[in-house]
Design a protein that fits this description.
The structure holds two protein chains of two kinds. Chain A is an all-alpha fold. Chain A has helices at about 5-20, 35-50, 50-65, 65-85, 90-100, 105-110, 115-120, 130-140, 145-150, 155-165, 170-175, 185-190, 195-205, 210-215, 220-230, 235-250, 250-260, 265-275, 280-285, 290-300, 305-315, 315-325, 330-340. Chain A has a domain at about 235-369. Chain A is elongated, with a radius of gyration of 26 Å. Chain B has one domain. Chain B has helices spanning about 15, 20-50, 60-65. Classes of the chains: A mainly alpha, B mainly alpha.
Amino acid sequence: MSRALERRGELQRLARVLGVEPDDLGALDGADVATLRELRHAVADRLLEQSRDQFSRAVALGDALPASVAARLAQHVMGPVLGGRAAALLSPRKAGELARRLPADFLADVACHVDVRKVGPLLEDIDRGTMAEAGEHLRRRGEWVVLGAFVGHVRDDVVADLLDGFDGEALLRSGAVIEDASRIDAVVAMLTDARLDGLLRAADEHALWTDVVSLNVHLCDAQLDRVASAVERLSGPRIEALAALLAADDELRAAARPITRRLSARFLADVAADVDLGRVGGILEGIPTATLAQAAAELGRRDAWPLLGRLLTVLPEDVLADLRPELDDGLLRRAEETDAAAGDGPPAGPDGDDAAGSAKSPPAPPTRR
Amino acid sequence: MPPSARPAPLQLPPGVTALGPEACAAVAALVSDAERAQSAEVDAALQEGLRVVPRPLRGIARRVLTG
């Protein structure tokens, strides 16, 4: 998760506990995420202790009454804020019983106010269907921070049910604010390749590439391989947009290395024909020399000499210096000759078309579609 | 609650105190407001709770709520 996202999420959680808007927390502008979290926990503990006696009596009343009356009390009298705080004192059995009788939209309200540190054990007794339904309400309201907080406390099967109803944007926005980062790899592993593709398309359509890239640091090799494969399945314009973003942001480019260094030579050869090569330097820079050499050889095998020539032209000087010794002399000479012969005219693609476009044009900002 | 029984102010994390006295005062005021609001809401909820409980069960409910 990026620092900015993490901070925004933490401010939202703290504001909820204090009953104010995040904008009211300007006094904490200089506080880091750990401090904000520490303060939130301290305030939540304090509020629970302040009313522990009354909350305990309300919970005892719920135990003494028929479950249907207890549910009515919870919904219409305690409401989501007090109910969320008092939930910390419920037994798992009672929590499960109440959850079955309360409407999902109210449970979603409560979820916005519970202290997940305290109610984590209660979630075991709430059935999957109820959790998924409440999660769906949270998704519709865009409560990504709340969803992100719960992922660390619910079983994998419940997370899988929740994710089933999420489109690419919802997956990404909630995934980017998962509070327990150690769960991110497991969550990505639950997604099919098609859903991973949807997530990347959403990143492109909603300008959320930073969120995707910042998730990388929490992924193991297997999931990084899958994300890299999903990137390879993106269309040319989306690749250009991603590359332009990486080219413009050193930090992001460095964070994306685990993905870019996994891109295959075949992808590079294919992408060379599909994109404006002048715009993809941000991706090319992170690719290992050996992969670039294989891609160059692949373009040679395809007789795509103009493309190879332009690929070599757009590579950063230091990358090219490393690559030259890896390339066959004949391959290099022919690519350079063909590129020179192409002159200022339109470059030819692998099939004689002009797919390489204006390969020498400078990088441009990503275009939104 | 009589003033003498008021709990001590919340001990703020070092990361907050490092922001200076103005920030600490602002945060302490927010915490204090949240405490006051919760206290009033809880009292109101417990009163209202008795009205929601069906009449035959109100005696039990009152005993549970008043201890």
